[in-house]
Design brief:
CATH topology: Rossmann fold
Strand order of the largest sheet: 3-2-4-1-5-6-7
CATH superfamily: P-loop containing nucleotide triphosphate hydrolases
Distance between the termini: 47 Å
Largest sheet: 7 strands, parallel
Number of helices: 14
Order of helices and strands: EHEEHHHEHHEHEHHHHHEHH
CATH class: Alpha Beta
Bound molecules: guanosine-5'-triphosphate
Length: 287
């Protein structure tokens, strides 16, 4: 075995910590050595005790008080401090040599899209510590509520992929809310929008023509902008979403094998196609 790290990234509240706990529980149940690395200096409580915790080196709260910085400046300070204290990182990592790390990242998307802080950290993990690194970018299922939100989410995922420069799986999290149709949930909104289970497939693996026609019917004024965004999504061919339903062990297992395949990419075999979720679930819930 080698050294593997999976970074869980995505906006605040997307479900990174919950997914980290689910992945670790699932992997440990099948006898694998998987550990949680908390990379969020502001994390307050853990569903799963981290084996490595950046808060043992520096905490956002202390930085904000002592340096009189706001949350964003404080976060930048914490990451720079981490990069200046690689001996701490080295000591922590030395305990987990042949293990798999799940790295729970902060929810400020600026870290993934606007700054090089996280990509520098990833680069250090792979070049100085020989880790094979990949990332999951989580977006909540309510991002498919309307096409404008979907564009915003897709562009943020794409920008992270370009910025972090590691193999990345885009995950549509909290899919259980879509199926349950809880009042006020995205499932409710999808019903109002008249979407069917079949329609949702085009958001998981974007169909440019259909998405463009929906965008134009919502915002005909922005025809050229809609066209340019859809063209960008199509040209990059990078975006598709893996639906994640944490209420299903199979769904967690599927994502874990998808992560394994992605980690192996370029090592000794081509990644296998992920098994998609049965979209019939959505169609049934619709009725
Ligand atoms: N229904 C449902 N709720 C979820 C799921 N995953 C997470 N949640 C809830 O969403 C909220 C945020 O989840 P977290 O795992 O803390 O999200 P996070 O991305 O780590 O959040 P930050 O640390 O703020 O970036 C919590 O209340 C979770 O219980 C899911 O799959 N389904």
């Amino acid at each position: 075995m080698g050294k593997y790290a999976c970074m869980l990234t995505g906006p605040a509240g997307a479900g990174k910590s919950t997914l980290a706990a689910a992945l670790i529980t699932h992997a440990q149940a099948s006898g694998r050595n998987v550990h949680l690395f908390n990379l969020d200096p502001a994390a307050e409580r853990f569903e799963f005790a981290p084996s490595i915790d950046i808060k043992e080196l520096i905490s956002l709260e202390d930085v904000m008080t002592e340096m009189e910085l706001g949350p964003n400046g404080g976060l930048v300070y914490c990451f720079e401090y981490l990069m200046d204290n690689l001996d701490w990182l080295s000591e922590q990592l030395s305990e987990y040599n042949d293990d798999y790390l799940i790295i729970d990242c902060p929810g400020q998307i600026e870290l993934y899209t606007h700054t090089s802080l996280l990509s520098r950290f990833i680069n250090t993990l792979s070049t100085s510590f020989n880790y094979r690194v990949m990332a999951c970018y989580l977006l909540e299922s309510n991002f498919i509520d309307d096409v404008n939100k979907y564009f915003a989410g897709t562009l943020s995922a794409m920008s992270s992929m370009v910025n972090l420069e590691v193999p990345m799986i885009n995950v549509l999290s909290k899919v259980d809310l879509l199926k349950k149709g809880e009042a006020g949930s995205s499932r409710h909104l999808i019903a109002r929008a008249g979407r069917t289970g079949k329609d949702l497939e085009r958001f998981l693996d974007p169909d440019p023509t259909l998405i463009l026609s929906e965008a134009n019917s919502h915002n005909p004024k922005f025809y050229n902008l809609n066209k340019a965004i859809v063209q960008l999504i199509e040209d990059f061919s990078l975006i598709n979403f893996h639906p994640l339903d944490l209420t299903s062990e199979d769904s967690v297992g599927d994502l874990l094998s998808h992560i394994d395949n992605c980690m192996q990419y370029g090592e000794d075999e081509e990644p296998k196609e992920p098994k998609d979720m049965d979209m019939g679930d959505f169609a049934e819930a619709e009725e």
